[in-house]
Design goal:
The complex is a heterotrimer of chains A (83), B (336) and C (368).
Chain A (H helix, E strand, L loop, with lengths): L4 E9 L3 E6 L2 E6 L11 E5 L2 E5 L2 H12 L1 H7 L8
Antiparallel strand pairs in A: 1-2, 1-4, 2-3, 4-5
Chain B lengths: L14 H15 L2 H4 L5 E5 L2 E10 L5 E2 L2 E2 H14 L4 E12 L4 H18 L2 E10 L7 E11 L15 E4 L5 H7 L19 H10 L5 E3 L5 H13 L2 E5 L7 H10 L13 E4 L4 H9 L8 E7 L6 E4 L5 E3 L13
Parallel strand pairs in B: 5-6, 10-13
Antiparallel strand pairs in B: 1-2, 2-7, 3-4, 5-7, 8-11, 8-12, 9-11, 10-12, 13-14
Helix pairs in contact in B: 3-4, 6-9
Chain C lengths: L8 H18 L3 E5 L2 H9 L10 E5 L10 H11 L4 E5 L13 H6 L4 E3 L3 H10 L4 E6 L6 H14 L4 E5 L5 H8 L8 E4 L1 H7 L5 H7 L3 E3 L4 H17 L4 E3 L11 H10 E8 L3 E10 L8 H4 L15 H5 L23 H4 L4 H8 L8
Parallel strand pairs in C: 1-2, 1-7, 3-4, 3-5, 5-6, 7-8, 8-9
Antiparallel strand pairs in C: 10-11
Helix pairs in contact in C: 1-10, 2-15, 6-11
Classes of the chains: A alpha+beta (83), B alpha+beta (336), C alpha/beta (368).
């Protein structure tokens, strides 16, 4: 129901707008919903608006946790070691 | 065909366009050459063979990053003729100009066409122009028709693909479609993606020389790679599986596609070519593509099989297999 | 930030193993419903059903806002397009959805001024550029999109625009989930909760699911690894006999969500009853434009003559939307109802369950 894509804020502009970069494509989006977002922040962009600031540290933490899963499953005796 | 009106979707290169062609055009014209639905007709002529093709260009905007309607009109028909394995020789051009169109703009388009023809080594030898009242056109519509010489023994067709064959793609997907959409009112975004419109007759000739048993060439224009491969799968009664990680796509094209909700496999290209080649000649074909103009990013992207005929699959980066579906109507930007 | 790791097959494999192991421990059959059309597409496109253990069924729910837009709402959009002087602006998603007699695409083919925009801001700009046209924006979507329309209306007010209005058909998710649970035909053991709606509303509005109904929910993102993580966390809860609302999509969602965005929605809109196509009226799940903003409410600005709504016989979208019928079990699927000739919105919407099954899987189609 909601295509929203991560984008990096390149610069704030007047009237609560900002230019953002999405993998080399740049567009102007509104910061009406996240007025505190600043240059360098990553935001989720949906239909021309930034919805929320993405927490990069949290993203990395989640990934680290997920990478331990096979070992976790092994520890619990749920999966044969080396499977 | 169920609609009683022509809709924009009927022109988008997807399944609705196919319906229009099958149910209305082919049904009314009753011509065998048309029924094969290859990009160029191969016609006997005084002991030799001609390849003959036509295409009409209605792109909007007329001028877009890296090119214009003129370049498209020449490259598109040159490529269609070349896909049959023929050497493109001569083009005709027909213009429908809207009253009020700027002569300066017409000149720009003509210069583009002249330069593209020169690059492709073809001659524009005849033409026609009409003017329609303001409001009846989109500035300019261009039709080009092209003829080429088919050497003896060259026989390519979208119906010749065989299990085990490899599918090659000459370069990055989606550049043209994204370049066009980046200029559309309401969707503007800035990118340095340019159209890839280019004549590929030299590339095709090189591949054919290196891989003489190539089954067919086809350019993934409207409807993108998906329309092209689905058409080939249906015409040949085979299935095709594409390896997602092997398909070259520029990061910006990926980014723009994700932003708009587009499927990169369905975005139009104007300077790319697919080739279906027997497995043992695939590496030679790839090397020839890479050494040719506009082929430096070429890759082997898929394989033909005989199960589940008529279908095209994507083996995803993630490791699962799903269907590569053909565009239905137009690709619309979406938020959901 | 490189988020491509959320598509990493290696990480996915680890999750799939963990899912299989936990499902085996759990033993019994479980039905997990996702209520976000973007999840429907992600699951289909990434072939995730194929990697689920046999005792875990992933059901698609009414999470496609286009699919659940009532017939008469489409008829209203069509009537607006037919109103002289009106330029209808819309997200691409709504163009092909059939109403009782027509669609926005059909109206455009008939010469009406219907334009696709990427953002409601584009509609605002259009209104500024063309003061002679009455620009109406068709506002459809859940809580992810409603703040955008609220922001657009507030901007329009600030600019003193007199030729801009919205037709608001927005709906909200949490109360609808309760209606689903209370539907006697529907069996759900847990919910995969929508990632971007939750970016705005946070996790608190879902807590009643766990507290009152003992049904776990995990707020999940949309990359394949995200979805697998969501499923894994659900299975763990079920296995441990817990029921809570957890956030898997940490990078985008906090328990509080985006309060500023919610304030903007509250300023412009108020809760009203909404008619969900195929389900019926669910009280309090719609958004209506508040009286103070009546000047921006298209239903107040224009007098519209609406036809008697007409449903198509045989269309089973309602059952598909509630997860009772799988798309390929519908008698019309892939026969009378295809993306080229859609009967109901589940097939025409890019996020509809039927469209997802038709486009990405082999169900129901014969080899040519």
């Amino acid at each position: 129901m909601c295509l929203a894509i991560p984008a990096r804020i390149l610069a704030r502009q007047e009237n609560s707008m900002a230019s953002v970069d999405i993998m080399g494509v740049s567009r102007t989006v509104s910061l009406d919903l996240v007025p505190e977002a600043g240059e360098g922040d990553y935001v989720l962009v949906h239909a021309g608006f930034a919805l929320q600031v993405i927490d990069e540290a949290t993203a990395n933490e989640t990934l680290e946790l997920l990478k331990t899963l096979p070992f976790f499953a092994e520890d619990e005796g749920l999966v044969a070691e080396g499977a | 065909m169920r609609s009683d009106r022509i809709l924009l979707a009927h022109g988008s290169g997807g399944t609705m366009m196919r319906e229009l062609i099958d149910d209305i055009f082919v049904a009314e014209f009753h011509e065998d050459a048309l029924k094969r639905l290859d990009d160029a007709a191969s016609l006997p002529f005084s002991g030799a063979r001609l390849a003959f093709s036509t295409d009409t260009y209605v792109v909007h905007p007329l001028f877009f990053p890296g090119g214009d309607i003129g370049r498209l009109a020449v490259c598109g028909t040159v490529n269609d003729v070349a896909t049959s394995g023929a050497v493109p020789l001569y083009l005709s051009v027909g213009f429908v100009l809207e009253e009020g169109f700027l002569v300066e703009d017409l000149k720009r388009i003509l210069v583009s066409m002249r330069d593209a023809a020169r690059e492709a080594g073809v001659h524009i030898v005849t033409g026609d122009t009409k003017v329609v009242e303001k409001g009846s056109g989109d500035g300019v519509f261009i039709n080009t028709a092209g003829v080429g010489a088919l050497a003896e023994g060259v026989d390519l067709s979208g119906s010749y693909c065989k299990p085990g064959d490899r599918v090659l793609l000459s370069g990055t997907l989606g550049d043209h479609g994204i370049a066009i959409v980046s200029t559309r009112e309401g969707l503007e975004f800035s990118t340095d993606i340019q159209t890839d419109a280019a004549p590929l007759n030299a590339l095709i000739a090189n591949v054919l020389a290196a891989a003489p048993d190539t089954r067919c060439f086809r350019d993934p224009t409207r409807g993108g790679l998906s329309s092209t491969l689905n058409e080939l799968a249906m015409a040949s009664g085979v299935s095709i599986t594409v390896e997602e990680t092997a398909v070259p796509v520029k990061p910006q094209v990926r980014g723009a596609s994700e932003m708009l909700g587009y499927d990169v496999f369905q975005v139009a290209n104007e300077g790319k070519m697919t080739a279906v080649v027997p497995a043992e000649q695939a590496e030679a074909a790839l090397a020839a593509m890479k050494a040719s103009p506009y082929g430096e990013d070429a890759a082997i992207v898929g394989e033909v099989a005989d199960e589940h005929t008529g279908k095209v699959y994507v083996h995803t980066a993630f490791g699962a297999t799903r269907i590569m579906d053909m565009l239905v109507g137009e690709q619309l930007p979406r938020i959901c | 930030m490189d988020l491509s790791a959320f598509r990493d097959p290696e990480i996915a494999r680890g999750l799939i193993e963990a899912i299989n192991a936990t499902a085996a421990k759990l033993g019994r059959e479980v039905k997990v419903m996702e209520v976000c059309g973007t999840h429907t597409v992600s699951i289909a496109k990434n072939g995730l059903r194929g990697v689920m253990p046999d005792n875990v069924t992933l059901l698609s729910g009414p999470g496609c806002p286009v699919c659940v837009t009532a017939n008469h709402d489409i008829d209203t959009a069509v009537a607006l397009a037919q109103t002289p002087g009106v330029t209808v602006t819309t997200f691409g998603d709504m163009m092909k959805v059939p109403g009782s007699y027509s669609s926005l695409a059909r109206e455009k083919a008939d010469g009406r001024d219907v334009r696709i925009v990427y953002s409601p801001l584009d509609a605002l700009q259009l209104a500024q550029r063309e003061p002679d046209r009455q620009v109406v924006f068709i506002a459809v979507g859940f809580e992810t999109t409603a703040p955008l329309i609220a922001a657009a209306v507030l901007r329009a007010q600030e600019m003193g625009l007199e030729n801009f209005s919205v037709f608001c058909a927005h709906k909200t998710v949490p109360i609808a989930l309760e209606a689903l649970i209370n539907d006697p035909d529907v069996e759900i053991d847990a919910f995969i909760l929508p990632g971007h709606v939750s970016t705005i509303i946070g996790s608190h509005p879902y807590e009643f699911l766990a507290e009152q109904y003992h049904i776990p929910g995990v707020i999940t993102g949309f990359e394949p690894v995200d979805v697998l993580q969501g499923v894994y966390m659900i299975l763990r809860q079920l296995d441990e006999g817990r029921a809570g609302i957890e956030i898997a999509y940490h990078r985008g969602v906090t328990p509080e969500g985006n309060p500023h965005a919610r304030e903007m929605v509250d300023t412009v809109f108020e809760p009203i009853d909404a008619d969900w196509r195929g389900i019926g009226v669910i009280p309090g799940t719609g958004l209506g434009v508040r009286e103070e903003f009546a000047g921006f409410d298209a239903t107040k600005k224009f007098t519209l003559e609406l036809p008697e709504p007409k449903e198509i016989k045989g269309c089973q979208c309602g059952e598909v939307l509630r997860g009772i019928t799988l798309p390929f079990e519908c008698k019309l699927f892939a026969r009378a109802c295809t993306p080229e000739h859609p009967i109901g919105p589940c097939m025409v919407s890019s996020e509809g369950s039927c469209a997802a099954y038709y486009r990405f899987t082999d169900y129901g189609r014969t080899d040519k």
